[in-house]
Amino acid sequence: MKKQMKGEKMADITRGTVLCGASSYSRKFYFNPEFASLPKGIQEDLKIMCVMYSSEVSGEIELVFTPDGDLLIRADHREDDALFDEIGSGLKIREMQRKRRELLESLENYYKVTRLGQAVPEEA
Q1: How is residue 24 annotated by DSSP?
Q2: What is the pLDDT of residues 5-60, one digit of tens each?
Q3: I need a labelling partner for 56 at 20 to 30 A (CA). Which of 25, 39, 94, 95 fits?
Q4: Domain range holding 97?
């Protein structure tokens, strides 16, 4: 799982697959219906993570699978968004990565196995 801020490796994002996201501007959460087979509890956890980010920091957040199966957290904001907290954004994303590490790594493994046909990774 990786953090991605505005402008970083955008080619990965444009070719990647969005899992979910939230926007403080539209006040909406998006969950990609291609992943409807994920347990409802996981879907709800993702919704809480994304909505909390967008309400606390402002801007937009997306969880995106790269073509290689890595899960990126992409954060962005409008240039005229006076409420967006750049430092808070980075801190919030690192907090999500730390507290939800197991979930995010499991999602990467799920994607690699179900979408890319890779073998189940062995635990260290």
Answers
A1: T
A2: 444 444 444 679 999 999 999 999 999 999 999 999 999 999 999 999 999 999 99
A3: 39
A4: 2-114
